[in-house]
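[SOLVED] Need 3D model of a two-part complex

Original post:
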Amino acid sequence: MSERRTTRQEDGWQYAVMLLPAVAVLVVLILVPLCYLAYTSLLEWKLTDPAGRTFVGGANYLRMLRDTDFWHALRVTAVFICGSVGMQIGLGLILVEALAALRWGATLIRTSLLLPMVIPPLVVGLIWRILYDPTAGLANYLLGFVGLSHPWLADYRTALGAVIMTDVWEWTPFVLLILLASYAGIPQSVHEAADVDGATRWERFRFVTLPLIRPMLVTVAILRMIDVIREFAKIFVTTGGGPGTTTETVNMFTYRQGFVYGDMGYAATLGVFMFLTILTLTIGLVRLERRLAEAA
Amino acid sequence: MRLRGSAVAILVGLLLVYFLLPLYHLVTMSVKTDVQTFASPPVWIFQPVWDHYRVLLRGKFPGFLANSLLVSAGSVLVTMALGTPAAFTLARARFRGRRVLLLAILGTRMLPPISLALPVFLAYLRLGLLDNRLGLVLVFLTFNLPLVVWLLKGFFDEVPDSLLEAARMDGCSILGAFVRIAVPYTSPGILACTILAWIYAWNEFTFTLILARRDAITATVALASFFDLEKVAWGSIAAGSTMTMLPVVLFSLLGRRFLIRGLTGGALKE
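Solution:
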């Protein structure tokens, strides 16, 4: 007994040596900066102001709540989320059954699907900036056949939609691959039973497939929401938030306050807001996962 | 049934065109002359010219690519060195606070970069680490270390207990069992995680844009600045983009099977 205890203590020491360096790095590089972010959000601190910083308490938070530009950015983010995540899941659902039935070329398809999501997001933005370009782009040439030639990124009415389409191109594969995996998890017999009962394809999809993959859909939707909230490179390189502020999400707005205007206090406040939003979504995701694990 | 078969074929064809045509357009643009680039209707058959690459490679771009390589390789090296033993411990050891730690690591993966970039920017300003490659290596750990610990824990969970116990019976320490048994057993997973972490580091944009100015900027940030020029150099943008995405495409084809798991499933499994 005593021998076993000493061995375990020795084990604990070895485990500590293996774990603690990584934990220490994460504390220094993540926990400390986050605390500093929260502290900075309580300061009036403009890098351009020689007077330096003064403690102002919650003033930046009040300013945020009264700032119409912030509410506008929040609305843009919401539209971006609904448009982008909605289209990705819609496309995913339309395509999953056709692709799951595919016998030939599955490898080719999956490899092609992988490409948009692994290449640098900035390059995705550049590709679409080129495609949308009125003179050099392919989009207008192809759309020209149906009379839809248009400066998509420069017109304030179409810019947000055009940027959303870049995200749809990049991440529909992600949704599709996850849906394919969860579709493959449905036993063949379930589908056969529905067919025997005389269900149409739509009924089988609506009443058999959809309920079975719904938990996975919610998970994917939350993951994609988190990514859209953090989206930066594609917006930066296609429109930079413009024209005006029509494509400025909260993330872009935070960047502008902090690194264009040098307003550290206000940008930190927005950073805290973004952190808390994503933290809430992540907790929701973890709860959902746990419920799923218990149900399984 | 025949009709359904051809409908699926058309759908799949459209899908391939949708996902691959934009990439094809970019790559061919990099080997077209400016006249061909702006031709309407587009030129589909042409003799490739390499002028855009020649111009780029004579300029500053190779330096930016070298920065990308140094920073991504450095950060992946540190990530794997710290992350592999940590993941093994989280998979094998039972201790108080383990669950909380796991959840914290999962949560860290989701952090918005801007919330970290701002305090890190202020700290680097004081420490003199702005526009410094070492500074970028450190900050890239914030997204790669949690990712690698999380994914590798999943791989170490799959190492059979009997294998590790047998090693302990033979007199191996925990560290010995980790180095001699667990690491070789999971080496395909470790290799795949290395590739995935490297791709994230190579593709990084937000932190680099904020923390690098001139000397340390990487290829992605350099590409974004090409539009600032008075006359947009489409050929250079296309050539630079192609060069920047080429290594990622090659590596992801190599690790294709795992990447699908890493990019999709890894986020979901606990």
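Edit: Residues 131 and 216 of chain B are 5 Å apart (CA to CA).
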